[in-house]
Amino acid sequence: MKFIRMVGRIVSKKSLTMLLALLLGLVLCQPAIAAEGFKDINGHWAQVYIEKWGAEDLIVGYPDGQVKPDEPITRSEFVALVNRAFDIEDSDIQSRFSDVNPSDWFYGQVMAGKEEGYIAGYPDGTFKPNHTISRQETAVMITELLNLTAEGQTALQFYTDYLSTDQWAQPGINAVTTHGIMSGFPDNTFRARNNITRAEAVVALDKSLTYQKKSVLVFKGIVELDNQPVKGATVKLFAGDSHEPLKDTVTDENGSFSFAVSNGIYHITALLNKNVGYTSQITVNDDSIPKDLEVVLSPGARVSGTLMDSSGNPLANFPIYFTANPTFDGKSDNNGKFSIVLPMVGNDGQVLTYSGYLFYQGVRQVFASNQQYSGDTDLGQLHTTIPGETYSNGGGAGGNNQPADTTAPIWSQGYPKTADISMNRINLLLQANENGTCYYVIMPDGAVVPGAAEVKMGTGSGGIPAIKSGQVNLQGNNVVSVAIGGLQASTDYEIYVVAEDSMQNFQTDPVNLKITTAAESGDTI
Length: 525
Known about the structure:
This protein is α+β, with helices and mostly antiparallel strands. It is built from eight helices and 24 strands. Strands 1, 2, 3, 4, 5, 6, 7 and 8 form an eight-stranded mixed β-sheet that branches. It has a four-stranded antiparallel β-sheet with strand order 11-10-13-14, with no helix packed on it. β3 (about 235-240) and β4 form a beta hairpin.
């Protein structure tokens, strides 16, 4: 994602007012009309967006109370609107366009767009600032502005008139469609060469702003041992105070790692053989993206033990956690045994105090509390209250006792699935072979695939906020229906679903469902 930077000189409030007036063709000596006074948008398909932008002073109306939402917009006006919405300030770089001169009101705006890299001119060296802008030109500009990508031409070929689009514009149309920023008309056409209207431009840019706010930030770091970068260290990312890792990676030959995340607070752990380290309270936002984070490894204590259920049988393949801020996670093996390497001393030089615990049916059970480790430690057998499961091997009484269930829920054939898809609502249908909990997230089409733990937390990949998320109880072999509302018409979405049973056996791979909501009459963006 390319994050828009501030460039050039500061624009005065008076200049911005003049710009907005010129943008909508106002006579400057007459008063502008506030959003609530727009007379020609009542019942218009873009009314909500236009009122929102009016309230935020991104657009103003004509003295007669109109905003003329269905009128076209010029290339220079569109650039000015983009810069206003994305806080891109004027640039005074030298123009290479033969028809853009320093005396033009749009000179600084066009130069800023050029410097940001989202506009380009024509082969003859012109920009044609006073020409109206087409839908396909808009799609290309937005693609460059947001650095959008989309594989193939699947989204483009959805439009019945895609063959009539200019080849240079096809990747842009495909990208804005894939990411839900622009879409077509109810007859499944895109009408690429049509002029984009003022309303369509506002809606496309509003969705562009929403996309940017949900975009991924990438922070980078390096893992070191004895002041040297190390290759092959396992690095795990945790969100906030969560005990479950969002994702993990392995350091490259330079000891480097990176994670794509959204705004938030994170911590990371790193492990190489018996050397371990961590970094806590990593703040990531648009103004603070760590690029040179260091995680220093030092010899750790190997803590081991055997988990037992309430019947005295090994508790196999069960997740465990040790927390001293941050959290380190592990898992018992088929015999209930676990082994986990923990730092003995914190980054502040103080001895760390741990609590070891697991979760059963959503309840935290502590099996080791107030523990400090000065070396390798075997905790022995650790008894829990988790019930075991007894079943007969060959029928009749006296069958062999077996460890507790270690299998995640299995979806019934054809499930999960969706039904009753309308403009802004769907039903999610679920059926599995046992009781448990289903977790789901709805993401924009084309979003990076989240991990199972991220879906459980209600986020997309890297902790990106989901459009919708939730959980519902599963009833073995019974269909459960979940109504999900608040979606947008004519929009592609991706749904990710995972399930977990009462023994916390968790599906490792989310199921992916793709949907397109129904079109709204008159919806052109």
